[in-house]
Every structure is written in C-alpha cells, then in structure tokens.
Amino acid sequence: MADAEAIKVAVRVRPLNGRERGRGDTAVVGIGQAGDVQVEIPNDKQPRCFAFDFGYGPDADQQRVHEDLGESLITNVVDGYNSCLFAYGQTGAGKSWSVTGDVRSPQQRGLLPRICEGLFARLGATDGLEESTIVCTYLEIYNEKMRDLLTPSSSTLEVRKHPALGIIVPGLAESVVTGFEGVEKLLELGNSLRTVSSTAMNAESSRSHAVFTLTVKQSLADKRQRQAQLHIVDLAGSERQKKTEARDGLRETPT
C-alpha cells in the first residue's frame, strides 16, 4: 500500500470495571470525534489530546478493531512481508481480550482468531497460488524463562542464533494447521497452560508474555516460493507490583 507506515499505534480505552463503578469512579480517558485520545487533568479546563493512528472507545467492537488492524496484517503476510502485533498495557486493560477474546464466539473473537480465519479465506482466494502451508507455534516468556505452550510437559527453552535461519528456538513445537478449527484447538491448549494469577486489579491476570507465531509458506504457479511470519504478542501487565499486589504466577493445567 502506497500510504502504509512501517509502524502503526492504536489505543483502546476499556470501560470501567465493577470495582471502579462500585466506588463511583468516572472515566477520565476517552476518544474524541477525530479519534484522538482525550485525558482529563485535574484543574485543567480542557482535556489534553493525544493523536494516534487509531483510537477506540469502550463501545468499539472486535470486528471494527480487526478491520483497522487485522486486515492489513493479513495482506502483509500473504504478500510475503513479516509482521508483528504487540498488545501492551496495564493488567486488566483488555490486552488478552483484544488479542484473543472469546474464540468460540464469532462476535467476541479477538484479533488473533479473526486474523487466522481471514488468512485461510484470503489464501483460498489468491490467484496463482498452487499450495500453501500454515505452521503455528505458541511460546511463553515468564521470569526470563521460555516454555512451549503447545507441549504441557515441555522443559525450558533457549534462544539460539542460526547462521542461515537467524534467531531460532530449538525444541519449540511446530503445528501445521489446515483450517480455523486447528488454530482454535491450539489456542485453547496454549491458553490453558499460560501462567496466570490473581491481582488486586484482575481476578485472572496473565503474568507472562505470550508469542503466537504464524509461518505462511506459499508455492506460486510460476514456481516461486514465498514465506512470511506473523508474530502476535500478548505482553504481561505493565504495572507496578505494589499497586496490583501481584505475586508469583500459578500455572493452571487441565484436569
């Protein structure tokens, strides 16, 4: 795209939670008519405004976020360009909701499942494509240690630099998926193994970084090969431990 930027930044404002509503709190951050983020400051007559590429208020639905952000990532990967999406913010801000949401609900799915679903549809409709393969990995980084979220009993992994392949993680499980149902199963498995714990701000807070990677390999009719990766990163809460009363995470495994 001629008007594409290498980096785009979007801000999504969450609604007040039950604890805040119970205290009678009011929102001081909102989205203006121009899409800018407006922050009310005590003793200031006018809110301070900050411009980003995209701004979403509490009423913005998952589909709108996907149309602005997810669709461009699908286009990049299909065209052979590596891409990455980071979700950053305080615990309870809605990072995991924006990234994953409710996978089983077509209306409440987040960016990751919508991107996967759209990616299969786009590849199926691509002219001049003879064959395509999508490989998924799901990695957790917690307390400076890495674990495979697709292998329940996996040991700690390490990053290595390969002379030809670049940065790699030996031993990280790779799963080939042929449809959205396969991605759905991987997400359910990985999320059930992710490190979570309760904080003063969130009953079930993700205490680790999670990296879901899609590697798309394409064989074109003119015999060319095309490969690109999409990394979707759900970061741990960016807050002070004293404020959230967060303690060491407890890994929840399926019973």
TrEMBL record:
* List of residues binding ATP: G89, Q90, T91, G92, A93, G94, K95, S96
List, alphabetically, the Pfam families matched: Kinesin (PF00225)
Could you read off the lineage of the organism from its UniProt record?
Eukaryota, Sar, Alveolata, Dinophyceae, Prorocentrales
Record's superkingdom?
A: Eukaryota
Gene3D superfamilies recorded for this chain? Kinesin motor domain
- The segment(s) forming the Kinesin motor domain are 6-255
Q: Which UniProt keywords apply?
A: ATP-binding, Microtubule, Motor protein, Nucleotide-binding
Family statement drawn from the similarity comment of this UniProt entry: Belongs to the TRAFAC class myosin-kinesin ATPase superfamily. Kinesin family.
Designated name of the protein = Kinesin-like protein
The record's listing under PROSITE patterns reads:
KINESIN_MOTOR_1 (PS00411), KINESIN_MOTOR_2 (PS50067)
